[in-house]
Amino acid sequence: MELSVRERGEGEPLLMLHGLFGSADNLGGITRKLETDFRVISPDLRNHGRSPHVDGMSYPEMAADVIEMLDRLDIASCHIFGHSMGGKAAMQLTLHAPERVKRLVVGDIAPVAYGNHHSAILKGLRAVAESDAVSRADAEAILADYEDEPDVLSFLLTNWRRGADGKNRWRIELDAIEKGYADIVGNIEGNAVETSVLFLRGGLSDYIKPEYRDNILARFPHAMVRTVEGTGHWLHAEKPDLVARLIKRFLLNKL
User: Fold this and answer.
1) What is the fold, at CATH topology level, of the domain defined by 5-114+186-251?
2) What band does 179 get if pLDDT is binned at 50, 70 and 90?
3) What is the pTM for the complete model shown?
4) What's the CA dihedral at 238, 242, 245, 251 to 10 degrees?
5) What would the pLDDT profile of 104-125 be if each residue is shown by its tens digit?
6) Where along the chain do its domains lie?
7) Which residues are catalytic?
8) pLDDT tens-digit map of 37-50
């Protein structure tokens, strides 16, 4: 597995892991604000973006992919920010190999199992894939029957790209994501670690609930939670200045 990866900036390495249906591009807003202080490393996770399309979407597999990438880049340890699915992959990596992680920031996800939040979106993505859609407008017209939130539609359509053969298609591997969806919304594995962890919670989101506190502390006893008021699940896109500032202060041990 050789993940597609981009690097920006100089300083201590900071790994940025995107969420489901995303890519490294989706974290660009905060990446640009962090690259003045850190060497920011932004991979596309498996079955997303420019990275290989393969079987399996478990968090141990994603963590192993990232460790292999860090080895290839000769990075012994780094800070990590992970959003949503990327946050779970980051937590799994930390539990599996805590010596590779200096400090961890998790964006609006907890170490718990979630229900199916994406059935309509997956049906819409599949409907587009099986249609004769050519342009972005064609894809959007079909997908809008399954998702009516404009920001979510725009986010999903960043994956509708022209391939080497000149034809537009999804830049995510739908078969692997559908087959591995139970793993994606499932829990992570491992015992407690001493790593310092900051959980950033969207004030309008229900992904990190008060009742998840014990689950968080059981794995990460040195964790703290901060709420970014006025944001939902995509807190890094809604308030990039504030989120980047919180990440920077925590990683520099000033929070």
Assistant:
1) Rossmann fold (3.40.50)
2) very high
3) 0.95
4) -70
5) 999 999 999 999 989 999 999 9
6) 5-114+186-251, 119-179
7) 84, 233
8) 999 999 999 999 99
